[in-house]
């Protein structure tokens, strides 16, 4: 099992400081990682810098161990396993938290928008459809996160276009029909309202038409 009460543990640093004790409870039920963690990405959540792992290599804990956790601790666990090296594991755990508007859940979801698994994009698109409605909890949470992390969002936008162009043009000739495009439109809507100005669309103009090169 993972060691307790170690604030230097990179998985504890994936969440704001006030969640450290909950993160420790989650680590206590997680099997030891099969591989050492390599890499992380930094984002700001409500003024705090957090470091989220690029990939997680620990097996999933037993069902009864997960059930022993509080509701919030289970959310933390699902966030961590949304970074798992197995795409099917990522999807299972994403589905448990994608509807949450907790500020510390948001970066885990946005990171998956900029990755290559189409099934994850479909889950996110379907769950975040209400993001365009101003004043909703999701609209506010995502908008504030994106405004606080403009470079992260810019990188996400570019990755969405790149993965569509490299992997999914055979299925979606136009970027406009690609699930990732729909998600970016929703995210930019939330960011625009939070910023009080239109948020830049970093998709090349031709990416929204069949003639993109």
Give short descriptive properties of this protein:
2 domains; 213 residues; disordered N terminus; mainly alpha; globular
List the helices and strands and how they pair.
Blueprint: H1 20-29, E1 40-45, E2 48-53, H2 63-67, H3 71-81, H4 87-97, H5 106-113, H6 118-127, H7 137-148, H8 150-168, H9 179-195
Antiparallel strand pairs: 1-2
Helix pairs in contact: 1-3, 3-4, 4-6, 6-9, 7-9
Describe the structure.
- With 213 residues, the chain is mostly helical.
- The chain is built from 9 helices and 2 strands; from the N terminus they run αββαααααααα.
- The radius of gyration is 17 Å and the shape is globular.
- The protein folds into 2 domains: 1-97, no CATH class; 100-213, no CATH class.
- It has a two-stranded antiparallel sheet.
């Amino acid at each position: 099992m993972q060691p307790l009460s170690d604030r230097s543990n990179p998985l504890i640093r994936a969440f704001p400081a006030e969640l450290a004790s909950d993160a420790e409870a989650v680590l206590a039920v997680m099997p030891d990682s099969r591989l050492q963690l390599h890499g992380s990405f930094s984002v700001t959540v409500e003024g705090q810098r957090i470091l989220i792992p690029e990939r997680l290599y620990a097996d999933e804990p037993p069902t009864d161990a997960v059930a022993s956790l509080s509701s919030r601790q289970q959310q933390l666990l699902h966030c961590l396993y949304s970074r798992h090296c197995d795409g099917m594991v990522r999807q299972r755990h994403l589905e448990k938290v994608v509807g949450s508007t907790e500020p510390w859940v948001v970066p885990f979801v946005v990171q998956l928008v900029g990755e290559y698994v189409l099934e994850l994009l479909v889950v996110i698109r379907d769950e975040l459809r209400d993001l365009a409605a101003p004043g909703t909890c999701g609209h506010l949470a995502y908008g504030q996160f994106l405004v606080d992390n403009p470079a992260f969002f810019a990188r996400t936008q570019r990755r969405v276009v790149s993965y569509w162009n490299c992997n999914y043009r055979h299925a979606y000739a136009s970027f406009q029909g690609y699930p990732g495009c729909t998600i970016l439109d929703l995210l930019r809507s939330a960011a625009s309202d939070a910023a009080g100005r239109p948020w830049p669309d970093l998709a090349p103009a031709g990416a929204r038409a069949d003639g993109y090169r």
